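Troubleshooting: if your tokenizer reports a length mismatch, compare your output against this known-good record of 71 residues.
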Amino acid sequence: MHTMAENTPGDMSEARFLTIAEVASKMRVSKMTVYRLVHGGELPAVRVGRSFRVTEDDVNEYLRKSFYNAG
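Known-good structure output:
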């Protein structure tokens, strides 16, 4: 039985998409830094027309992986 609430890896129905400016604000970096991460393949993005959108989950995952423990 297939349910509508089933979350498969390709299911983007619950994804919250952010603009490059929103990602930059959330990460406290410049928009150019976010563009570099997207073009370098470090941060997954979806191209919509001439702009990009990044899922909030991908931003959080990138930050989690990039966390540096200085201790």
